[in-house]
């Protein structure tokens, strides 16, 4: 069912500093920072040959990564995103196994403009999993 | 400098259960479990079209992931591994920027039979980074 690893998301306190680490220290290609107020984050993409790293900085008091950064003061790996061909079929298959989908269970449009869902970390090895329609 | 994302490593308490989650629930191709006593872990690889997920279960009292699992009872994302063409050149470039390499600073042979180094999470957005010779 799951296909490509679309991205690994890393939550950071200071996205300008994190961009410099990935660009200058690790020598990777790094996008401009883009504020995504509807998702409560500012994003930078680190483009690797086979996938990407998504750097996330909180945007606003209700940011979904505020709590994570309270628990992880230096930042850290926040989630992995796997692509699926059919997000509704994937969701229904997962629900049938007893796995929990976060929120309403209806896909939302994610930071890349495609439908996404998040799965409960307790059901997936302590890992927050995002599914994105390929 | 950094190239492909070689793998994302997820530490788990029960690798048989984690394998079932990735194989049966998420529908991915999953390798057999392999004990790697010299690394203090048992590994399973989840093969995705563009990269892999490495599931890690502690093996022995001195396992390098024991502490992580004490702090993360359900398991969690442990590290990311980026490929580099020349691991000694990469190390020297990183050291010149003031970044910290863990251990002796000399590459060891990793779980894939290639030279690897680990970088200090405090210098890389709270993320444990493994570099592997491509």
How would you summarize what this structure contains?
Two copies of one chain form a homodimer. Chain A has helices spanning 15-25, 66-71, 87-96; strands spanning 5-11, 29-30, 34-36, 41-47, 52-58, 76-84, 108-109, 115-119, 129-133.
What integer value in Å does the Rg of chain A equal? 15 Å
Q: Quickly give the structural class of chain A.
A: alpha+beta
Put simply, the count of helices of chain A is: 3
- Provide the low-confidence segments of chain A as ranges: none
CATH topology of chain A: 2,3-Dihydroxybiphenyl 1,2-Dioxygenase, domain 1
> Which pair of chains has the greatest number of interface residues, and how are they split between the two chains?
A-B, 41 and 41 residues
- The string of secondary-structure elements of chain A, in order, is EHEEEEHEHEEE
Helix content of chain A: 10-25%
Q: Separation of termini of chain A?
A: 11 Å
Q: How large is the share of residues in beta strands of chain A?
A: 35-45%
Gross geometry of chain A: globular
The CATH homologous superfamily of chain A is termed 2,3-Dihydroxybiphenyl 1,2-Dioxygenase, domain 1
Please name the CATH architecture of chain A. Roll
DSSP strand count of chain A: 9
What is the subunit arrangement here?
homodimer
Please indicate the count of domains of chain A: 1
Mean pLDDT rating of chain A? 96
Main sheet attributes: strand count, strand direction, barrel closure of chain A: 9 strands, mixed
CATH class category of chain A: Alpha Beta
Enzyme class (chains A, B): isomerase
Protein name (chains A, B): Methylmalonyl-CoA epimerase
EC number (chains A, B): 5.1.99.1
Keywords (chains A, B): Isomerase, Metal-binding
């Amino acid at each position: 069912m799951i296909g490509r690893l679309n991205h690994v998301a890393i939550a950071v306190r200071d996205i300008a500093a994190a961009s410099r680490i990935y660009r200058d220290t690790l020598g990777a290609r790094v996008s401009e920072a883009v504020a995504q107020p509807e998702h409560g984050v500012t994003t930078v993409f680190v483009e690797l040959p086979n996938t990407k790293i998504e750097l996330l900085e909180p945007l606003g008091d209700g940011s979904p990564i505020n709590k994570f950064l309270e628990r992880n003061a230096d930042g850290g790996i926040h989630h992995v995103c796997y692509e699926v061909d059919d997000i509704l079929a994937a969701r229904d298959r997962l629900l049938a196994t007893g796995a929990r989908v976060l929120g309403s269970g209806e896909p939302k449009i994610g930071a890349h403009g495609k439908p996404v869902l998040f799965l409960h970390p307790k059901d997936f090895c302590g890992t927050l999993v995002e599914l994105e329609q390929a």
